[in-house]
Design goal:
This protein has a six-stranded mixed β-sheet. The radius of gyration is 38 Å and the shape is elongated. The longest helix is centred in the C-terminal third of the chain and has 30 residues. The protein contains eleven helices and six strands. The chain is of the alpha+beta class and about 280 residues long. The two termini are about 65 Å apart.
Length: about 280
Amino acid sequence: MIEFKFNLENKRMTTLTFQNTTLSVINQNNQTFLTASDLGKALDYSDADRSVRRLYTANADEFTAEMTALVEMKTAGGIQKVRIFSLRGAHLIAMFARTKIAKEFRKWVLDVLDKEVRKTTALLPNTITPEQQQAIQSAVQQAHHRTGLHWQEIYRQLKSAFKVAKYDQIPQSQFGNAMAFIMNLQPIALPPAEERFTFDLTKEEISNLTLLLFSHGQMNWLLGKLVKPLEVIGSSYSPTVYGHHTEYKRFYDKSLPLARKLIEPLKQAHRADFEHLLYRLSAN
């Protein structure tokens, strides 16, 4: 059972009149709700509230959460749980009712519902026409080729900018702004090409650079082993050693692929040197 709590002091209260019966309206989110008691009076039940609740209980599986709810309301007896029905819910109750006036009530409540729908629709802005939709589709396609942005990304940005779920929900008054938005999209900014350098290195120089990285790895390994002992003896160097170990290890790991690339030319002409250096790079 869905249960809502209404603070009726903050809700707009109006009334509807069916023949000689005045019905109090609970206006929640611009939707009209009627209490079971008022609904029963309109249907000419002597025990109004109980009769309507019995009809609902016997046919509860035919009602949706939008058609009825159990709410807490201020009544003459204090705060009490009261069942309320939307206009659609009220019409369904009237379908189950067997009173003489039920047929007239069904006609009346449908008229009220129709007026409510027309009023709600009138509040909605006019959305772009099919011709304007085609213009936006064409502009999106052009923007895709001009900017390199995927068309789905362009539509995503368009819907986000105009706060709509679908682009065809854009108000007509915003059509010009929508077109301008698409035409002003900027191309994808490509990162600048990284500057490259070329060096001529001897076999000895390649070997020295590789062994330098190997030595760095060995020292970093030793720093890692020293962290715990220094921490145990309460040495002030412990945090510094830990920081150097973790930070320099990151640079070592990033440099390994470069070192392997550096020794690659030795693979054919100096196989023994290549394998020796490769072993060193794998030792850490």
